Amino acid sequence: MSAKTMLVTGGSRGIGAAIARLGAAAGWHVAVNYASNEEAAARVVDDIISTGGEAFAIRGDVGEEADVIAMFEAVDARFGRLDGLVNNAGVVDRKARLDEMSVERLTRMMRINVIGTALCAREAVRRMSTSHGGAGGAIVNISSIAAVLGAPGEYIDYAASKGAVDTLTVGLAREVAAEGIRVNAVRPGIIDTEIHASGGQPDRVAAMRGLVPMKREGTAEEVARAALWLLSDEASYSTGAILTTSGGR
Ligand code: NAP
User: Does this entry carry the keyword Oxidoreductase (predicted)?
Assistant: First the structure.
């Protein structure tokens, strides 16, 4: 039988890259999606192939329906099956209060983090659901502890987008539970990646570390291990679960 395959959105850097690498090490064939950093995606793919795995990179903005459709068609063409989807692609924005936020900012946040997650999950369900002739599968959404904390004064738009991801996880899990698909989420806390610099706060990890009960940030690999477990058959009776990986925060 051919190997199981997964698509990791935003698999070029940070948590997504760790999931892609760890997934490949566990025997999955991996489609590595990225938005614009082709070099970073190529590095992940090269690392996987050089260690005997199978992977390819695919550009696409998860918030654009045409890109998402093309991305899943590329996975169909290359792998001929889809067993796992990790909805990891996500963005933050500059630190701001709601009364300072433009509609363009709010729209971008929801388009990438919420609509992107929903569109990719839709394409996965169309392929995996036994009611569509599929063989089942697993979806893991990457949420954030911000969904619970609200991120006041920093980015409540981001927090709200992750709240929507949590609700989408629970609802979709129940919607497709009898069709062979499990849908779960990982809810990371402060993780050491480039996302903080992309939001204009390169020192955010150091500044927040003291607020974490474990008194340290998490690594992308620590989040990846949680995601891989939820994707795997080891989690066969878990659906609609949200696994918090935040050092106790
Ligand atoms: P990151 O280091 O900034 O990496 C983001 C990844 O997403 C990159 O691969 C990027 O591609 C991709 N991406 C961005 N916008 C995209 C789009 N529109 N379409 C497709 N791909 C897109 O971020 P990270 O810290 O690993 O975060 C990954 C996920 O974890 C996000 O959903 C984030 O909200 C969540 N999270 C992170 C933390 C944390 O502290 N780091 C905490 C909680 C939750 P390019 O390389 O092409 O730019």
Answer: yes
